[in-house]
């Protein structure tokens, strides 16, 4: 990239960077070698001509766009397979996927959830049967859980799997319209198999929801099998190439062994054997929620890179009347919009790495029959997924707005990035629903704290606060982290007290819960924010890096702490000992941090190391040729391929002529 002829503003910005950009790239990637491998892989992928689009995707019809995405998905699969064989390297297909598809691969659910559910929910025998086929794409699948009528409340799913002991089969049925599966990615026209989550019935008795592996299309003709009704759900806000679909069954039989039986089992005679914990059936969702925190880091880095580079190149208006128009990045309001995006990406990455470790530890425990830490993992993954996805959506939108009119252009890629980022707020557990799951855990933890019990590490601050809620405020990062814990503890207590108040007024627990649920949701958000602050600050101070880089990383981590303290200063005034003077000091600190980060802004986004092919943006490319690219892309419009469009003769001319009469 160094030899590319760049916009002079970007050249100047890069020259004034105070740290070694390569050092940060290696830190993000996990070492110099990891960067080398990543770059070699990406170079290989983006030099494949067939993966490059001659016409921008947006000009294609819905159908052509899908077919093009499938074409590229198959080529990408082949290239990756060869690459893995040759270099024994497991590539990050999702990162290059943004480059290849701009949007989402029709195989996203195959890789992200179909294979993962076979691993997570299948017995060793079932894995041996299905996994090799799924991994080498002999079969293509998705995860079909959500229905027209139910997505959040999965115990309410209506798809039925009724066991027939005579034939040792399950009979799948979707008797109502609301029971039709709706949303699964790839289901529309791509997959031939599904994990279907259905209500299990044996001898007329319900045994709750269970996962089944089901073939829905013929492997040769791709026609839906008899008894299967399947199709695509149509255009959406984003995810255009994900090929989301609908599905219903009519007396469709599958063998008994197609129920994934790692947890619960159905024996030949119809005996139901309960698993260790029925919630383990929800395991794939926990795994994907953890992954979404990592996706939030990538999505915010995409938007930050585009908006920061653009803001360094764009000059508009003046700060001082007699001086030239400034780079818009010099407006402190612009820095306020953008530097939180850079900081958030680092916070999400650090928290993702911490959460993944907890996830793996809990999986190891579960394999040995220990489930003590499962509730804490579920509660933590729920609130972090909810808050990070919401933050990422807001940050991406703020970056888009920070690019003014050009940010509204599809060629900036910001609308597409927003489309797939904002989807994460809803899928894999709608944000409020997940926050309320965490609130259940917090209320239980609060009760345990009141009873003097020892709490799990992520909520132990509740006991500390109960012992002493009158801690002197300190304007240090550690003091701010403590402050976030006080806010969270204060909100948990307030929500708990509200529930008790309603119960005393004669409400039952469920109604009292619903009445207090805004407070519960806010308590859960505050808990999540306190984890984000504590973990990210902890990770940064443990980072081993050169003094210059460490200084910049600390500035970003502090910016995150101070930004959120100021954004939620009302809560701090209510629940901590912060004073108005402390808030004024923090405002000053915030301005100092913006100024300190300013010279490194371009270096920081360069360190995300996102190739132009992944950014896909007229505003964000490495060379900063913004206006040239905007014009080049505009000229690709089909309307610019002819000097006069047929509509002139058909409609406009007759209209004008009629007007003459
Ligand atoms: C790289 C991959 C990219 C993938 C792209 C993905 C595209 C999108 C895919 C999808 O969206 S797939 C569909 C995802 N759907 C959801 O996430 C549904 C959300 N709803 C739920 O998870 C559940 O319905 C619920 C909200 C958790 C409620 O479940 P339920 O009604 O059964 O529980 P409750 O009676 O409320 O009891 C809760 C009880 O259970 C514990 N618990 C709940 N879930 C889990 C879990 N996953 N693991 C462990 N424990 C769980 C919870 O803590 C409560 O415990 P107690 O308080 O009773 O002790
Ligand atoms: C892009 C995209 C891809 C998807 N891919 C898949 C897929 O591959 N496979 C799959 O199975 N599903 C998929 N889904 C479905 C997704 O998982 C659900 O849409 C999601 O879980 C939300 O459920 P819902 O649509 O039922 O929302 P609802 O639950 O109907 O939410 C509507 C409103 O009701 C509120 N609400 C609901 N319950 C409660 C409650 N208990 N307390 C308080 N408020 C509540 C919510 O907060 C929200 O404000 C996808 C969705 C999207 C958008």
TrEMBL record:
It is found in: Peroxisome. Its main location: other. Pathway: Lipid metabolism; peroxisomal fatty acid beta-oxidation. Residues 282-443 form the Acyl-CoA oxidase C-alpha1 domain. GO terms for cellular component: peroxisome. One of its GO terms (biological process) is lipid homeostasis. InterPro entries: ACOX_C_alpha1, Acyl-CoA_ox_N, Acyl-CoA_Oxase/DH_mid-dom_sf, Acyl-CoA_oxidase, Acyl-CoA_oxidase_C, AcylCo_DH-like_C, AcylCoA_DH/ox_N_sf, AcylCoA_DH/oxidase_NM_dom_sf. GO terms for molecular function: acyl-CoA oxidase activity; ATP binding; FAD binding; fatty acid binding. PANTHER family: ELECTRON TRANSPORT OXIDOREDUCTASE, PEROXISOMAL ACYL-COENZYME A OXIDASE 1. This is Acyl-coenzyme A oxidase. It comes from Diatraea saccharalis.
């Amino acid at each position: 990239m160094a030899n590319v002829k760049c916009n002079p503003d970007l050249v100047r910005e890069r020259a004034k960077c105070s740290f070694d950009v390569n050092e940060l790239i290696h830190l993000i990637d996990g070492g110099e070698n990891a960067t080398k491998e990543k770059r070699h892989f990406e170079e290989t992928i983006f030099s494949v001509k067939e993966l490059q689009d001659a016409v921008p995707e947006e000009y294609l019809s819905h159908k052509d766009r899908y077919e093009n995405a499938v074409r590229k998905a198959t080529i990408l699969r082949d290239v990756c397979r060869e690459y893995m064989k040759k270099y024994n390297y497991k590539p990050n297909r999702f990162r290059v996927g943004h480059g290849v598809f701009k949007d989402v691969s029709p195989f996203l659910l195959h890789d992200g959830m179909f294979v993962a559910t076979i691993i997570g929910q299948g017995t060793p025998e079932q894995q041996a049967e299905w996994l090799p086929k799924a991994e080498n794409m002999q079969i293509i699948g998705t995860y079909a859980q959500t229905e027209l009528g139910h997505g959040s409340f999965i115990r309410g799913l209506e798809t039925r799997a009724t066991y027939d002991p005579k034939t040792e089969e399950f009979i799948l049925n979707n008797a109502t319209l609301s029971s039709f599966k709706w949303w699964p990615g790839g289901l529309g026209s791509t997959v031939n198999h599904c994990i279907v989550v259905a209500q299990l019935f044996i001898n007329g008795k319900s045994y709750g929801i269970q996962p089944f592996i089901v073939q829905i299309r013929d492997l040769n003709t791709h026609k839906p099998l008899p008894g299967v009704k399947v199709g695509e759900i149509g255009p959406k806000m984003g995810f255009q190439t994900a090929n989301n679909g609908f599905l219903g069954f009519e007396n469709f039989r599958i063998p008994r062994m197609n129920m994934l039986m790692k947890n619960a089992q159905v024996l030949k005679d119809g005996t139901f054997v309960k698993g260790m914990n029925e919630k383990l059936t929800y395991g794939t969702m926990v795994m994907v929620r953890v992954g979404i925190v990592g996706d939030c880091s990538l999505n915010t880095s995409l938007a930050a890179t585009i908006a920061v580079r653009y803001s360094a190149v764009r000059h508009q208006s003046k700060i001082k009347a007699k001086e030239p128009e400034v780079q818009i990045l010099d407006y402190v309001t612009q820095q306020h919009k953008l530097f939180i995006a850079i900081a958030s990406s680092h916070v999400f990455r650090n928290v993702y790495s911490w959460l993944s470790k907890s996830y793996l530890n809990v999986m190891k425990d579960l394999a040995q029959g220990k489930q003590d830490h499962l509730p804490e993992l579920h509660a933590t993954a729920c609130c972090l997924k909810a808050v990070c996805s919401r933050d990422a959506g807001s940050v991406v939108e703020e970056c888009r707005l920070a690019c003014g009119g050009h940010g509204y252009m599809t060629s900036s890629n910001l609308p597409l990035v927003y489309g797939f980022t904002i989807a994460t707020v809803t899928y894999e557990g709608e944000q409020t629903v997940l926050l309320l799951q965490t609130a259940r855990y917090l209320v239980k933890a609060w009760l345990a704290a009141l009873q003097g019990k020892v709490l799990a590490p992520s909520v132990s601050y509740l006991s500390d606060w109960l012992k002493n809620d009158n801690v002197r405020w300190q304007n240090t990062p550690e003091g701010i982290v403590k402050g976030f814990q006080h806010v969270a503890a204060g909100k948990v207590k307030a929500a708990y007290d509200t529930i008790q108040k309603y119960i005393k007024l004669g409400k039952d627990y469920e109604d009292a819960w619903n009445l207090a649920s805004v407070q519960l949701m806010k308590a859960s958000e505050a808990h999540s924010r306190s984890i984000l602050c504590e973990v990210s600050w902890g990770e940064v101070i443990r980072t081993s890096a050169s003094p210059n880089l460490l200084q910049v990383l600390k500035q970003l981590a502090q910016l995150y702490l101070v930004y959120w303290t100021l954004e939620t200063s009302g809560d701090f005034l209510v629940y901590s000992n912060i004073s108005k003077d402390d808030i004024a000091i923090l405002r000053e600190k915030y301005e100092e941090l913006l100024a300190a980060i300013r010279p490194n802004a371009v270096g920081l986004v360069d360190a995300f190391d996102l190739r132009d092919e992944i950014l896909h943006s007229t505003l964000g490319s490495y060379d900063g040729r913004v206006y040239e690219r905007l014009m080049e892309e505009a000229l690709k419009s089909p309307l610019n391929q002819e000097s006069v469009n047929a509509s002139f003769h058909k409609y406009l001319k007759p209209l004008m002529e009629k007007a003459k009469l």
